[in-house]
């Protein structure tokens, strides 16, 4: 898909076009945790959870008081404090990507970028394979062309 194709994608809900929206909608997620003692017997090395944070800002898009303020500033602050880490200490980020704007707001909310700076950061190709910031390395839910063109001039 070319940048022209992305720009020509149908409008879904202004300002979001079809290329800005997740292809599949999920209703939930789960993480299975066990003790470090138990994990040592498993076939793969364990990943140790250093910190976590949760935050809910609304129960639906229609009840959100501010669509541009996700829960990431609150949940990120708690997780980073618990882990005694800063955003600069993180090698890989796996962020929920329901819409292109969600990725931008979450990068900023977690402190990976200053407010308003995520689009240019992504537009510079830093999240592409070989870039200096590993983001959603599993591919995420957005169409791959949207992730690559997040910061493209529309």
Automatic annotation (TrEMBL):
Name assigned to this protein: Thiolase C-terminal domain-containing protein
Q: Name one Pfam family in it.
A: Thiolase_C_1
Q: Which PANTHER family match?
A: ACETYL-COA C-ACETYLTRANSFERASE, NON-SPECIFIC LIPID-TRANSFER PROTEIN-LIKE 2
InterPro entries in the record: Thiolase-like, Thiolase_C_2
Thiolase C-terminal domain residues are 53-147
């Amino acid at each position: 898909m070319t940048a022209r194709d992305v720009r020509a994608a149908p409008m879904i809900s202004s300002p979001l076009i079809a290329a800005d929206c997740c292809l599949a909608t999920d209703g939930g997620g789960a993480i299975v945790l066990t003790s470090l003692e138990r994990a040592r017997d498993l076939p793969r090395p364990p990943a140790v959870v250093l910190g976590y944070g949760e935050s809910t800002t609304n129960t639906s898009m229609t009840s959100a008081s501010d669509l541009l303020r996700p829960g990431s500033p609150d949940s990120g602050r708690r997780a980073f404090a618990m882990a005694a880490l800063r955003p600069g200490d993180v090698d890989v980020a796996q962020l929920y990507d329901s819409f292109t704007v969600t990725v931008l707001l979450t990068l900023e909310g977690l402190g990976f970028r200053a407010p308003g700076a995520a689009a240019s950061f992504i537009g510079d190709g830093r999240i592409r394979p070989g870039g200096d910031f590993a983001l959603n390395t599993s591919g995420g839910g957005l169409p791959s062309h949207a992730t690559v063109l997040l910061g493209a001039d529309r």
